[in-house]
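Bug: token stream looks shifted between consecutive jobs. Job 1:
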Amino acid sequence: MKTAASKPGFTLIELLVVVSIIALLVAVLLPILSQARKRAIGVACLVHLRTLGQGIGVYGLQHRDRLPPGRMPDLGDGLNWRLHVKGGLKYRPTVLAILGREVGLPPFREPMSRRTAVDSSGERGDQQNYASDVFVCPAVSSWSDERNAAYGYNYQFLGNSRLRDPQDPWSFKNWPVPVSRVRFPSRCVAVADSMGTAASFATRGDYEEDSRDAQRLGNEGFNLDPPRVDPVQGEMAHFDSTPQSRTALHARHGQRGAVLWMDLHSSQASPEQLGYRVAADGVVGLDGRNLFFHASGQDVAWTR
């Protein structure tokens, strides 16, 4: 009769071998799982852009073949533009909120119709936070500020609604733009991952909600500047700063950024593939190529 003490068991060496095998499997599987997670995030981002992109088509159908504005201009207290979005009247909504309206997505829990009005989250009417994940890239899920947004619009060529004459509320610089002006929709950027005005700097600060620091990632992110910008006759996202600072594609998905094209398909591309010139220190220059941003597919800068 065998006793409990005489039953065979694992030796210390056998246990160490098992532990070593498990550790090896974990070491092999973790990078694979990490890559799979990153790919899933990239796919989710493309889905977000395609969803918003449907709003471009609906907007054109409802507004006589016109493209949406980047953001209505600032006319001063009491005179500012307000537009209806899903959920109510909103103070100067950006293009993302306008696209959300067209596809039935409420961008904000409480749209504020005045700049100084404050919602229940403590956000002012000129810089509210998005309420739906669709408006935010899942790779940078904290970038929910409507001004310091994760997605930027090709505003210079498709809807620069800033004013040429501050005294004339209808003197838009390049809006409204007919959809038919876009000659090659499958090769014209509509919306893409944006790093904000940090593109102009070698040293970049972390994202901060409500910040207006040009060196921080995401600042003025809802505007996406094209690769070529005329430094004298042109304009950049942070045009009222000295010096001006530009935005650019943010390669946040494995050295590539997500892009929504004007034919409403989405894909990933590197900054260089879109025409941006990036220096060794990371600063994005002004002398890139605008073939994928210009409405007519030309390599020229938009000028005022």
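Job 2, same session, no restart:
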Amino acid sequence: MPKRPRIAVVGSANVDLTTFTDLFPKPGETIFGQKFDLGFGGKGANQAVAAQLCGAEVFMVARVGSDLFGPATIENFKKLGIDATHVKQVAGVSSGVAPIFVESGGQNRILVVKGANDELKPSDVDAAAEMLKTVDCIVLQFEIPLETVYYTIAFARKHGIRCILNPAPGQPIDVDGIKGLDYFVPNESEAETISGMPVRNLDDAKACAGKLLKDGIGRVIMTLGANGSLLASRDGMEHLPAFALKSIDSTGAGDAFIGSFALFLGEGLSEREAVRRANLYAGLSTTGVGTQKSFYDRARFDAEWKARNES
């Protein structure tokens, strides 16, 4: 059996409010949607859940609001076996929420109201320092203040801890603040926003990854949705295709990729094999509805992996 990695996620926790519809309303128009789903989400929380379901020991560092969603979010972490010691409520602030609109083909549009996620500060990372020093990997996203992201990357570098950043949602950044990263994992739109280069196809993705590497980022993994992933470093680039699956809701697929990738790396797999498995894990998440509720546990994933690699 591989060792059980210890993974800390410093990041966001939201409640997802998902509406399924064939059409989007025009300005001033009211239409009927097909159905509605409420679930726990937030990129950080989703990535923590994916890592835990795949077999990691997971620790969450986050902030939630002083509303109905705050205690429920903390209880959800505990129920899933995620250490929530460093998930705290912030008085007078709402929890983060994400209204999500999903078209019939599975494509999603998401609005994020950060709420208490904006209250996660560098001092909160210091408060969790003793725990963080014991983990194998720290995972970050952009639904918390950038100053906290940069501070945590520096903390990881100082203590020799592997660090993975998912720059989502995409926004302009100080590249110097992320040069200590081990892995920079954007999707196409995030890579476009950060690099200023278009990413419309695989050649564009390679050119964009090349620029990010030139800017001083050590390793880039660009997730390409139905086209799989691009693994890029100064040693070269490799496109790893996606697996054939019937997608019904792509919400949370990127988070499924990040959390599972961190786990597979922590178990000692090569980058390439970790990406291949994460491609499948992310793809499987799109065959169900919602984010965390659509993620596979390890037994289900291993069965799928075995079936697809024996055929």
